Amino acid sequence: MAKVQVEEVNKALQVEFQAGVNYVTFTCQMTKYLSFLQRRFVQEGGKIVVRRVDSLNQLGEYDAIVNCSGMDASSLVGDDQMSPIRGQVIKVEAPWQFSTVLAGGSYVIVNEESTVLGGTAQIGDYGQDVRSSDSEKILRNCTKLVPSLKNTKVIAHMASLRPGRTRVRLETEIKEIAGRRLPVIHNYGHGGSGVTLSYGCALSTLQLVKEALKINLKSKM
Questions:
Q1: Relative orientation angle of helices 3-13 and 132-145, to the nearest 10 degrees
Q2: What letter does residue 19 receive in the DSSP assignment?
Q3: Dihedral sign, CA of 204, 208, 213, 214?
């Protein structure tokens, strides 16, 4: 970033950044991306079963279990390292906005039909209600970053919990389930970086599943 741009950000957010970076990349609109992945999964012969799972013991008929339970890992597998990170964002209508901006915990992320303004990262907060105080802070900080957003139309206010953990859990655990020794591949605890880490963690999870099934196959021979 040019020096004058850094100075503008510092003035807007009352911070003292020494430098900034502009670069070309892409953002991922997960509502569309997940729908796309689900369609691909079904097209390739995958089956989706909607059911409630309160214990891994309910899954003893499978050869391997992939645990992507997020915050529910605390109850499903007794993980006491899980802690919620409350996030609140605002979706606005800003078709003129083409650049994504991140600075000092505030961000303006451009999607296809909307722009997302954020955000909050309140550790240990289980509240999923939308709070006007957070909305006001988000709008104040984001319009300082991008003044043209000041009178933009608000589409929605949203709040949810990110699955926080001391570190991401990505590993294989062999557990006794319904009288069988089964591999459980854990992949959760990504905090606020779920989108960023999703592709790499998916590849690592796939490799762990392949290794686990190979071991299981050998043990049955």
A1: 160
A2: -
A3: positive
User: Are 66 and 172 in the same domain?
Assistant: yes
Nearest to 30, CA basis, from 144, 190, 210, 205: 190
pLDDT-based confidence at residue 217 (cuts at 50, 70, 90): low
Instruction: Summarize the confidence of residues 118-141 as an average pLDDT.
Output: 96
Report the domain count for the chain: 2
- Residues of the domain holding 65: 51-80+167-220
Classify the C-alpha dihedral 112-145-89-148 as positive or negative: negative
pLDDT at 139 over 50: yes
Structure tokens at 9: 């950000």
143: domain CATH number?
3.30.9.10
For residue range 109-120, what is the model confidence (pLDDT) as tens digits?
999 999 999 989
